[in-house]
Amino acid sequence: MIKLYPLIILIIFFLNACKVTNTLPPARNLSAMYNPAATTIHPQIFVYDKLQAGIDLYSIIFTNQLLFNSANSENTPMARIKIYYKIMESHENTAVLDSASKFLNIKRSQANDVLAIRFPLAKISLNKFVIQVTVTDLIRNKMNIKFIDIDALQMQTARHFYVSHFPTHQPFFSNSTVLSDTLLIEFANAQTPKIYLKKFNNDFGFPTPPYASTYTNYKIANPDTIIEYVNNQNITFTHTHRGMFYFQSDTTINEGLAIPDFGEEYPYFKSAEKLIEPLAYLCNAYEYKILTSQTTKKLAVDNFWLQTSSDSKNAKEQIRVFYSRATYANIYFTSVCEGWKTDRGMIYIVFGPPKIVNKTSEGETWIYSDNSNMKMVKFNFTKTYHPFSNNHYVLKRSVELKLVWDEAVKTWRSGKIYSFDI
User: Fold this and answer.
1) pLDDT at residue number 248
2) Beta carbons within 8 Å of 266's beta carbon, 6+ residues apart
């Protein structure tokens, strides 16, 4: 049997440039945010609201995603990036309230793996506003855009905590911690006497299909553990079990900092157990139960794709694209659960990167269409409050989506990769 269980590697799968016609909504298309073919850089951004001391904006750059060349006066490998932020009233009102840029020349010989670039922000009088950050690799001429929604009326949210690695004090930027991490937790209000840590073991399961009459309930269960810390602005956090760790200064309100542990390999899919999980989107309940009950998980994964494709070459290509999409879903959509288990992650894995993304204060609309725009489908996601995440979106389900969902799953199960770009 041909071995189909390689280490899944991040890949770039190509998406044709979108054609905006009169049949498509006249809105700003932000699809490049979720399309790895459109960019090579995937920065992380976060803010630390120090209350009266102001707000710091951090942009995290991974230097292995930058292009270095020696076409410069020093004749040494160097990358050049531009980081630009602007503050807007909302996604609808994009007039600039404040902005700034930084240009950086980064020598390969001096570059750290991760760069944390800090911007002190001017005070904004609005209760709600949006920060847009654009990071550009000036040599490759590739860019990526990120957004942060700020509600100044919330006084004990994740942005009021500063999290760093111990002992390096490098900002913690990951969307999941691991058992080997030791983190320092700092709360902005030094007058708060205690910080409380709640540990949860929530398993929300898989999202229901886009045509279902119900959607997954992400209600939080009671915590398994509550630990009290004295707020001396130097709380050291380590853990020995996976779960969701929730830091609060006041347990009577639903505001705080959530730090998940989704496993050592997150956001990748390396173990056979992890490779099986996203197959829930391509299987019925009985098939999935059989898959997960197999003693040899590696063999179960191999057999699924060989039986689906009946051709080893096609099977390898399906594996490559399917798990690449699942990995990017973890990178883009991590929320109260793993990114691939969110509504946006589900659609992204099965359908691929959307051709058009329209973003508003209320949510996102994803549009898929073929190259002639004769075939089109929309998925509407509502941004929904959840104490664990500011990145939680719920799909507006409809029975009208059953036909296109069934077609996509059938295409995967017939040994082909589903995509509208044909």
Assistant:
1) 95
2) 176, 178, 330, 338
